[in-house]
Amino acid sequence: MAEIRPFNGMRYTEKAGEINALVCPPYDIISDEQRAEYIEKNPYNIIRLELPKGGDERYKEAGDILESWLSDGIVKQDDKPGIYVYEMEFTANGSKNKLKGFVSLVKLEEFSKGVVLPHEETLSKAKADRFNLMSETYCNFSQIYSLYMDEDGSVYGLVDGCSQGVPDMCVTDGDGTIHRMWRVTDESIIAKLEKAFEDKKLYIADGHHRYETALNFNKHLMEQGKANELSGYISMMLVNMENSGLVVFPTHRIVHGLESFDADKLIEACKPYFVIAQAPSEERMRAALNTLYFEGKKAFAMYAGCGKCYVMTLKDNNAVKQFLPEMSDAYCGLDVSVLHNLVLERIFGIDKENMANQKNLTYTRSLEEALEAVDIYDADCAFILNPTKVSEIRDVALAGEKMPQKSTYFYPKLITGLVMNKFAERG
Q1: Which residues lie across from 76 on neighbouring strands?
Q2: Alpha-carbon span 249 to 93, nearest angstrom
Q3: Cβ pair 348, 402 in contact under 8 A
Q4: CA 182, CA 416: separation in Å to the nearest integer?
Q5: What percent of the chain has pLDDT over 90?
Q6: What's the pLDDT score for residue 195?
Q7: Is the pLDDT of residue 404 over 90?
Q8: 95: Cα separation from own chain's centroid
Q9: Which end of the chain has the smaller Cβ count within 10 Å, N or C?
């Protein structure tokens, strides 16, 4: 099954400056203004490599910058291979949480082998961008975030035991999340972890684009005769699926630009499938969705503007299966599958291509942004979803299927810049 191994992590040296000014959130949630702010604080911020800007030469420039930083001692590879225990301490939904896993290399496997399993569709544009960056830097600047089953807690016990002292690195990000990392080089512990993963599958939580890009790039290197021992691996953060600190936020849908939209007609069209109740306020809407979530009901809400909130609960859990008999029960039972199939596609006519191109559909993690899109920016309506359960993500992946795009948002996001994987020299 999954093959993991230690690696000589590339990390910032003291010469680069304070680590808090060197790291950044994932590249795909950073605006141009935020990027400029990171660089202004410290010109060695990892964002210059992870998110290069400019014309056609921007990827080459990123490669040049990395080479100069290595030459000048701004970053340096550790002299001994190890794994890197990574803990995040954060607040979510009003509660304090801790999430701990470890970073190692993982052998790249085609999804068809059933070792590394995706759960979400991807976009081609993002994969092309990451491929071009990898072609010039030969580096994983950020980790794929993956989950594994650890029912008896034995792997977590090993990981937790390695991280009781003072961390080698510690930063606090703009959201107040504390990121701690411990370097572990004990060969006996690493050997136990390698052995433990021989019978495990990995479920990608975040980083599908980068994983698929790494697969394609390794094939490219093999075709060019440039592959090496490390190019067939990728850097991953591995977290046990039973971890109490796992938090998944929903991603809401904003519908806009329809030729005609009538909330009353939509509600009538939905009545054969849903029990529909108007909520008197946003707070009552959220409370109703929360109750239905813990009752295991398939439900979401529709916001039509001017405070009009409608909670929609599926009448028949087999409704989607009737239209998609070839799909698994796990896929058909997802709230997002219910919304996409029964409402967006069948009633609005927003097909998968339309969704991928975001012609009439956009996404947001922010409930406030979803409501404002309707009230202020003239979107037609917004659909407010409950979070996808981790067990649902696992079951869809095990069925060999992928959820619609933007089905999950694991929180908090891994920070970029604590440890990186330089797997080959530029050439």
Answers
A1: 11
A2: 10
A3: no
A4: 15
A5: 87
A6: 97
A7: no
A8: 21
A9: C
In whole numbers, what is the pLDDT of the chain averaged over residues? 94
Across residues 407-420, what is the average pLDDT?
94
CB atoms within 10 A of CB 68: 10
Whats the size of the chain, residue-wise?
A: 427
Contact between residue 314 and residue 338 where contact means Cβ atoms under 8 Å apart: yes
Please write the tens of the pLDDT for every residue from 171-205.
999 999 999 999 999 999 999 999 999 999 999 99
pLDDT for the residue numbered 124: 61
Please list the residues that pair with 204 across neighbouring strands. Answer: 146
For 15-70, what is each residue's pLDDT tens digit?
A: 999 999 999 999 988 999 999 999 999 999 999 999 999 888 999 999 999 999 99
Bond before 412 cis per omega within 30 degrees? yes
Q: How many other C-beta atoms can be found within 10 angstroms of the C-beta atom of residue 247?
A: 20
Lowest mean pLDDT among 75-84, 313-322, 353-362: 353-362
Q: Which amino acid is at 381?
A: C
CB–CB of 243/316 below 8 Å?
no
d(CA 184, CA 167): 11
pTM metric for this prediction:
0.90
Write out the chain in H/E/C secondary structure.
CCCEECECCEEECHHHCCHHHCCECCHHHCCHHHHHHHHHHCCCCCHHHHCCCCCCCHHHHHHHHHHHHHHHCCEEECCCCEEEEEEEEEEECCEEEEEEEEEEEEECCCHHHCCEECCECCCHHHHHHHHHHHHHHCEECCCEEEEECCCCCHHHHHHHHCCCCCCCEEEECCCCCEEEEEEECCHHHHHHHHHHHHHCCEEEEECHHHHHHHHHHHHHHHHCCCCCCCCCEEEEEEEECCCCCCEEECCEEEECCCCCCCHHHHHHHHCCCEEEEEECCHHHHHHHHHHHHHCCCCEEEEECCCCCEEEEEECCCCHHHHHCCCCCHHHHCCHHHHHHHHHHHCCCCCCHHHHHHCCCEEEECCHHHHHHHHHCCCCCEEEEECCCCHHHHHHHHHCCCCECCCCCEEECCCCECCCEEECCCCC
Q: Which of 358, 352, 365, 361 is nearest to 402 (CA)?
A: 352
pLDDT tens figures, 333-343: 999 999 999 99
